[in-house]
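Input:
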Amino acid sequence: MKPDVRQDQDARPLTRGDMASGLRLYPGYLDRARQVELLAALREALAAAPLFTPRMPTSGRPFTVRMSNCGPLGWVSDAGGYRYAPTHPKTGRPWPPIPALLRAAWQELGRYPHPPQACLINFYGPAAKMGLHQDRDEDDFDAPVFSLSLGDSCLFRIGGRSRGDPTRSFRLHSGDALVLGGGARLAFHGVDRILPGTSTLLAEGGRFNLTLRRVTCPGAAAALPPDRENVGLSA
Ligand SMILES: O=C(O)CCC(=O)C(=O)O
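Output:
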């Protein structure tokens, strides 16, 4: 599937230059039937690994977003800092596997030969947001950050590799896939706001964002038990 360049109200359009930089947007990558299928797999994962409220390392302030994970590793944040962990902070159990549909999407769009190791599940209620940040808790920046949106649309903001670089925003809708790769891998990004009532996919409203990441460099998987390194895809 070819990346598309889309213009949205209230949001500056992506440009061909963005695509060249490694930022790729695939509007409507998942049709409604596939969104429903992914949502069912997500609900199953959340039954095993319930959403929790992460906290900022220094201030202890709660995030407005609730989180969980699937995959061999999960991203967590608490007084101990930001890190990847093999188990859920509340249940102590390993995270459930990454749904097959997500692994297939990574394989199709990721342009990276090794499987993802972490799938962060973010749930945004109507007032939740995420401040501008870089994803840099991973060892391997050659691998893209790949995300899929389900439920209400959001206003997504992205800038450059320095916090002070100019930013612009565009909307992400249910079923959209977004890849931050190449020169965009370390771009500052965040979610300004949720647009409540823009999707009927989630009965409870709100938005899920599922972010797939490679954490360790291929071949350097000492942090993972051997049976959980390459779940479901050949490395
Ligand atoms: O919700 C999104 O679209 C972005 C999520 C994000 O930036 C993150 O989890 O690091």
